[in-house]
Amino acid sequence: MAGAHVTAADSGMAVSGTVGVEIGTLSLRVSIELARGSTTAVLGPNGAGKTTLLRAIAGLQPLDSGRLEVSGRCVDDPGARRFEAPPQRRVALVPQDHLLFDHMSVLDNVAFGPRCRAHGRAEARRRAAAYLERVGLSEHAEERPRSLSGGQSQRVALARALAAEPEVLLLDEPMAALDASARPQVRAELRHWLEGFGGAAVLVTHDPLDAWAVADELVVLEAGCVTQSGPLADATARPRTPYVADLVGTNLLAGTALGHEAQVTAAGEPTGGPAGTASVRVWLADSAEGDVFVTIAPSAISLARRVEGGEPPGGSQRNHWAAEVGAVEPVGERLRVTLRGAVLLVAEVTPESAAELGLVPGSTVWATVKATEVGCYPR
After folding, report:
1. Which helix (H) or strand (E) holds 24?
2. For the whole model, what pTM was predicted?
3. Across all residues in the chain, what is the average pLDDT?
4. What angle do CA 294, 295, 296 make, to 5 degrees?
5. Most CB atoms closer than 10 Å: which of 93, 277, 327, 332?
6. How far is CA 22 from CA 57, 63, 107, 181, in A?
7. Exposed, middle or buried, 145 (CB in 10 Å: 0-12/13-18/19+)?
């Protein structure tokens, strides 16, 4: 997806092409390239087109434009009036609600996958039993799905999909129905199962922890377009939109650098934008030139009391900004403090520091950041 692929020279691409879909106000335009053996996480806000993308690959949503191939075979090309229905594609979709058949046993639910691949009943049940053993549910083979937990239902849905021997496995919000306490174990199990899957897997999620635990690659969809893609480590180190910066928990600014100085604004409001757009000067440890993104981790921002007319605190830090405290919210064992000034920043402090500084909405502080704590990279 616009660069979202894992190099697999010997295995080739499981999915490639361009997906163009128009639904209501959504205009989805995504270039796709997924290698066999890769797991790609697709993240994005509600309405970005994530589920629509999965449905298009699965054949549940015909393309309005573009062309899609699975393992080199064209499965959808509206210009050529070619379309393969879902049963003809080697693609398996595991929906968010799993859609298990309550009137069937767990074994027969899993056997449904290979039956759809034209295997006989006995062979389908043999394959189903093998996959149930693989996901640790052999003892539940004769039960009905209603007796299973959320995590067990997810395993059955995954076993049913894998038993059909797909070339592409699509997972739509696989953790959404699980209790928070069950998610870490299920993430680890899912990662293990996908490592043994020879095709390409695509995981749609709202939770970045799912992506970080399971996937190799990340694709971010916003308003139907890919705004960032590539290895997960790149997105963490170099977010390119406010949405991605929020996912990885950092402050993102955009501006222009000249040497060890950058003039920046909030990302999305570049310097020279609308009249009245505020900007600040940021000192950089390393020299940079041209249009840049600047990142500042919330934990790198030190706060100090500010008295009207007073001088900023001294020390080796070179970046000082006057700010007003907005929201103060607990996150784990620390507090995230919204700072309103020339640009909007978020700092992270201990409850003890917040109490000592008297951090309440409306109070004023100095925000200080060392130049060595500022990240900078080309836009």
Report:
1. none
2. 0.84
3. 88
4. 130
5. 93
6. 15, 8, 39, 38
7. buried
